[in-house]
Amino acid sequence: NVTGVQTCALPISAHWALGRALWLRGEDAGRLRALDEAVSLSPNYATAHYSLAFLHSQKGDPEKAVAASDTARALSPYDPMLFAFTTAKVFGMLRLGRFVEAAELATAVIHQPNAHCHCRAVCALAFAAAGRNGEAKTALAGIRRERPGYGLDDLLSAFRLGDDLDGVFRGAARRASSAFLETWAACLPAPTLPLWQIGRAHV
Fold it and tell me: Whole-prediction pTM value?
């Protein structure tokens, strides 16, 4: 019961879970309030900082995404989800137009053994945006060796991207001759996804 969680004093993890639930329901304002409450109650809760980075990196404030990612990584530098913490920052950097920095971060992400296909697709985009075409193509080839049918729908089902990424994606497509990136750019801004698609995976 979402209303019950909102009105009762609950453990910090419940505020984090509420933030995730509200994200799945598309309630942007509520999700941020819940996660802000979680980090206010426990400033050392790395996962809550990451969740803020994850949300802000896609449709919120990219500066806040970068800051929240940095905080999460500082609090838990050996976290099993470090690849995800860093990918959220890559998204934020791309939205801020800091392509060179985004690509450097992507280099760290793509070599982590537990980085899933969606994260590596974001890395490919970051490489292309920075003009590192060879690395973009190598990243994409690696994804397709693992998942030959991987395509645009798989990527978009994992994220809820804001319209401001349209220009970034189009620029990346111009810098790399990858059919995947060109198709990706042509399809943005992303449509609103049905709830059964949203959250199948997250960064």
Answer: 0.74
